[in-house]
Amino acid sequence: MRDHLAVLSAAFVLTACVSNLSDVPRVADAEPSSIPIFVLASGNRAYPGAARGYWQLAAEVAADLEGAGFDPVVILEPGAAPPDVPIIESVESPGECFSEPMLNVLSAGVIPHLGCIAYGHRFNLRCPNGRPSVAVDASFTVRSYVGWFVWPLAFSPNWRWDSDGPPSRRPEELSLLRQRLNEALTGACAA
Predict the structure, then answer these.
(1) Is residue 94 part of a domain?
(2) Is residue 10 part of a domain?
(3) Full-model pTM
């Protein structure tokens, strides 16, 4: 029994998840725009329950916009917004980029699994007063290794040990969203 406990303890200590910090964008914090931002919760309703998914995605973007200092309003139809305000539409979740860890599982963690986790949002910004839409990409991915013997990477300044796996949210997400949205509002939408 002690032998099994010792093996499990060793496996727990040697198994780790490390994330590459150099993949996290360096973002200068800026003030958000004071104009209201409308988030359109619609899209191709190709399957049952799709409308609920669009509302959920729009609500997540609105919550992040609010966290970034904007004043978001979720709407169902574009006509519900005044003509002189920007509308966020065609929201995409960056999704996950982890593949199936087949070799990691078959080798009991000896062969590390390389994956990544995606953060942020991608969407189109419908500019006010009929200006063309602008694609806004406020997303990024962070590479991660999971398995035995990957913990030495955590000693590198570019890598960080994540005891519970990669974090599901990063503070840089809101700063990047604020920066990219301000760039679109003051750049292509203002021209």
Answers:
(1) yes
(2) no
(3) 0.76
CB atoms within 10 A of CB 75: 17
Q: What are phi and psi of 161, to 5 degrees?
A: -80, 130
Helices 172-186 and 50-67: angle between axes, nearest 10 degrees: 90
Q: How many domains does the chain fold into? A: 1
Tell me which residue range forms the domain holding 77: 16-186
Phi, psi angles (nearest 5°) of residue 159? -125, 150
- In terms of Cβ atoms closer than 10 Å to its own Cβ (0-12, 13-18, 19+), residue 172 is middle
Q: Could you tell me if 117 and 142 are in contact, meaning their C-beta atoms sit under 8 angstroms apart?
A: yes
CB 68 within 8 A of CB 177: yes
Measured at the CA of 77, the angle between CA 59 and CA 66, to 5 degrees, comes to 30
Residues 108-137 as b or e (16 or more Cβ within 10 Å = b): ebeebbebbbebbbbbbbbbbeeeebbebe
Model confidence over 106-137: pLDDT tens digits? 777 777 777 788 888 999 999 887 788 899 99
Domain membership of residue 136 (yes or no) is: yes
